[in-house]
C-alpha cells in the first residue's frame, strides 16, 4: 500500500466488497467503544483515511504488551499493520535486524518528522541510563530523539504509562514513565496512556484505529487514558456487583461463596479503584476476564498498583496492613511484631524517598 | 483414593463459576430482562418512526451464560442468512419479526462483533451502491465478450 492511497482505495483494489468493508467498519466501531449509530461516520472517515507512520520502541518491558497486541482479534494485527498503518519499526516483529533496523528507524524519523505516531512499551531507566540499551544507545537517548519528531506518543502498558513493575520499590533502575521523562527532557508532546499489565489488546488497536480513522487523539481522562476504554469503573461494571450489594462475599478462594461466584472484594479485588474495560471487552476473544475466572482484579491499569501492599488484601484494610492485623499483634503482646511493622513502613518510606531522588 | 473418588474430589474445586441452569443464571445477575426491554422499545420505535437500532452486545458486561440466555429468549424465526465477506457472518431473524441477531467473524473464524439489530432488514444484507456498480460493469463486459 502506497502511503498516498486511502484505505477505501486499497480495499477496493484488493476486491473487498462494500459489505466486507462495512463489516470491518462495524468491528472497528465496536473496537473504539463507539455506539453503533456512529458506523456511518466511521465508514466515511475510514474510507478516506491515509496511512500514518508508526514507530514502536520497547524499553524496560517483558514483551507482554506486544504479545497482547499480536493476539488482538478485531481487526487483526496483520490487517492493521499491512492495510492501515505503516509500522516502520518494531523490534520484536520486524524482519530487519542490527544496522539495517537502526537505519530503518533513522530514515522513518527523518522522512516523517513531526508526523509519526510513537508507541512505547516499557519504562525508561534514569538512575544509570546504561541499565537498558539498544544498539549501544541508552533507552533514554533513543526515546528523547524519537519523541522530538513524534506527532503524539502512545504509551502501551503500565510500564511506559506509569513506571510499572520496573519502578516497584525500591526501583533499582530509577525507572520512569514516558510522561516523567518528557517533562525532565523539556519536550511537550501529546501523550495517550494505554495502561494495563498488559492492556486489553483491543484497547491498543482501538486507540490506533481512532487515530487512523479520525486523525485525532481520543478524549482522555485525568491520567491521559482514553475515556472510551478507561472511563468506567471495574466494580460498577462487574457482573458480580449485585453480590456486593447484597453483602455476599467469598471469604477465601475455596469456600462456598467462591464456588457460588460471590463478590471477591474480601479476597483483595481492586475493582472499586480500577478503571478499565475488562468487564465488557473481556479477554481471549471475549472468552472471559480475571473476575470471571474467580480471581479479583489486581488494578493493573492504575498508577502504583505494584506497590499497593498485597494482591489479596481487601481495600478496606488499607495499603500496609489493617487494624485487624495490628490488633492481633498487640493482643499477643508482640512488641516485636509492631516494631517490625514500623521498620517495614520506615523502609518503604525510605525507599520512596530514594526513588524520588 | 479410587479413580471415581478422585474425580469427585476434583469437581469440588471451584476453579470457574459457570451457572448451568436458568434458575442459577437468574440468580447470578439480571442483564437479560433489561436488554429485552431495550429491544422492545427499539421495536416500538421501528414501527412508529421507522428508525432502526443496533445494540452492541460487546458493550454490555454479561455474566457467564447470559449470551446463551439472550439467544434462548430471542429464539429463531423464519430467516437465516450466511454471509461471506472478509470472513463469515451469521445472521438470523429471531422469533420477534424485525429483531435480528448478527454475528461477524474474521477470516480466522474469530468473533469480531455480536449485535442485536432491530430493523426491517439488517443493513449489511442490502445490496450496496458500489457493489451494484461493480456488478453492472462486470455484466456489461461479459455480454460484450470482454470477459468469460
Keywords:
heterodimer, A: 357 residues, alpha/beta, five-stranded parallel beta sheet, two-stranded antiparallel ribbon, B: 148 residues, alpha+beta, five-stranded antiparallel beta sheet, 5 helices, 5 strands, 20% strand
Residue windows where pLDDT falls under 50 for at least 5 positions of chain B: none
Extended strand count of chain B: 5
pLDDT average of chain A, as an integer? 81
Residues in helices of chain A, as a percent range: 40-55%
Order of helices and strands of chain B: HHHEHEEEEH
Instruction: Sketch the topology of chain A as an H/E string, one letter per element.
Output: HHHEHHEHEEEEHEHEHEHHHHHHHH
How many helices of chain A? 17
Query: The biggest beta sheet of chain A, please?
Result: 5 strands, parallel
Helix content of chain B: 25-40%
Mean pLDDT of chain B: 83
Residue share in β-strands of chain B? 15-25%
Biggest sheet: strand arrangement of chain A: 2-1-3-7-9
Q: Which chains make the largest contact? A: A-B, 43 and 41 residues
How is the biggest beta sheet of chain B arranged? 5 strands, antiparallel
The backbone outline of chain B, from C-alpha atoms, is flat
Q: Report the total helices of chain B.
A: 5
How would you characterize this protein structure?
The complex is a heterodimer of chains A (357) and B (148). Chain A has 17 helices and 9 strands. Chain A is α/β, with parallel strands linked by helices. In chain A, the strands form 3 sheets. Chain A has a 5-stranded parallel β-sheet, sandwiched between helices. Chain A has a two-stranded antiparallel ribbon with strand order 4-8. A two-stranded antiparallel ribbon of chain A has the order 5-6. Chain A is globular and about 60 Å long. The relative contact order of chain A is 0.10. Chain B is of the alpha+beta class and 148 residues long. Chain B has 5 helices and 5 strands; from the N terminus they run αααβαββββα. At the A-B interface, α2 and α15 of A face β1, β5 and α5 of B.
Amino acid at each position: 500500500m502506497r502511503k498516498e492511497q486511502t484505505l477505501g482505495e486499497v480495499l477496493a483494489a484488493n476486491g473487498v466488497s462494500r459489505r466486507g468493508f462495512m463489516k470491518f467498519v462495524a468491528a472497528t466501531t465496536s473496537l473504539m467503544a463507539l455506539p453503533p449509530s456512529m458506523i456511518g461516520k466511521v465508514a466515511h472517515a475510514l474510507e478516506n483515511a491515509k496511512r500514518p507512520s508508526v514507530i514502536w520502541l520497547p524499553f524496560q518491558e517483558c514483551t507482554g504488551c506486544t504479545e497482547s497486541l499480536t493476539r488482538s482479534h478485531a481487526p487483526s494485527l496483520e490487517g492493521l499493520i499491512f492495510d492501515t498503518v505503516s509500522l516502520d519499526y518494531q523490534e520484536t516483529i520486524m524482519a530487519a535486524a542490527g544496522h539495517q533496523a537502526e537505519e530503518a528507524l533513522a530514515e522513518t524519523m527523518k522522512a516523517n518528522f513531526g508526523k509519526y505516531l510513537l508507541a512505547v512499551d516499557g519504562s525508561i531507566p534514569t538512575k544509570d541510563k546504561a541499565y537498558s540499551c539498544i544498539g549501544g544507545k541508552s533507552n533514554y537517548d533513543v526515546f528523547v530523539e524519537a519523541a522530538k519528531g513524534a506527532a503524539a506518543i502512545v504509551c502501551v502498558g503500565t510500564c511506559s504509562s506509569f513506571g510499572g513493575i520496573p519502578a516497584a520499590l525500591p526501583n533499582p533502575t530509577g525507572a520512569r514513565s514516558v510522561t516523567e521523562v518528557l517533562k525532565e527532557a523539556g519536550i511537550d508532546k501529546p501523550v495517550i496512556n494505554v495502561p494495563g499489565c498488559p492492556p486489553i489488546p483491543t484497547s491498543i488497536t482501538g486507540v490506533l484505529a481512532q487515530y487512523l480513522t479520525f486523525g485525532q487523539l481520543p478524549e482522555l481522562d485525568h491520567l491521559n487514558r482514553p475515556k472510551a476504554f478507561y472511563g468506567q469503573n471495574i466494580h460498577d461494571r462487574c457482573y458480580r456487583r449485585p453480590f456486593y450489594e447484597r453483602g455476599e462475599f467469598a471469604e477465601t478462594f475455596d469456600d462456598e461463596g467462591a464456588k457460588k461466584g460471590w463478590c471477591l472484594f474480601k479476597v483483595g479485588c481492586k475493582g472499586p479503584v480500577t478503571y478499565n474495560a475488562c468487564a465488557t471487552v473481556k479477554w481471549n476473544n471475549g472468552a472471559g476476564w480475571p473476575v470471571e475466572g474467580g480471581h479479583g482484579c489486581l488494578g493493573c491499569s492504575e498508577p502504583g498498583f505494584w506497590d499497593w501492599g498485597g494482591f489479596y488484601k481487601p481495600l478496606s484494610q488499607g495499603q500496609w496492613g489493617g487494624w485487624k492485623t495490628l490488633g492481633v499483634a498487640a493482643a499477643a503482646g508482640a512488641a516485636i511484631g509492631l516494631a517490625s511493622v514500623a521498620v517495614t513502613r520506615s523502609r518503604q518510606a525510605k525507599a520512596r524517598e530514594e526513588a524520588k531522588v | 483414593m479410587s479413580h471415581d473418588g478422585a474425580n469427585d474430589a476434583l469437581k469440588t474445586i471451584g476453579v470457574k463459576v459457570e451457572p448451568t441452569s436458568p434458575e442459577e443464571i437468574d440468580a447470578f445477575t439480571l442483564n437479560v430482562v433489561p436488554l429485552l426491554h431495550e429491544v422492545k422499545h427499539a421495536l416500538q420505535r421501528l414501527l412508529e418512526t421507522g428508525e432502526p437500532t443496533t445494540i452492541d452486545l460487546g458493550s454490555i458486561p454479561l455474566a457467564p451464560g447470559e449470551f446463551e440466555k439472550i439467544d434462548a429468549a430471542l429464539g429463531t424465526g423464519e430467516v437465516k442468512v450466511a454471509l461471506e465477506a472478509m470472513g463469515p457472518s451469521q445472521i438470523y431473524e429471531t422469533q420477534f419479526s424485525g429483531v435480528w441477531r448478527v454475528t461477524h467473524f474474521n477470516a480466522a473464524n474469530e468473533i469480531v462483533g455480536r449485535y442485536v439489530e432491530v430493523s426491517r432488514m439488517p443493513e449489511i444484507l442490502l445490496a450496496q451502491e458500489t457493489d451494484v456498480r461493480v456488478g453492472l460493469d462486470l455484466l456489461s463486459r461479459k455480454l460484450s465478450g470482454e470477459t468469460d
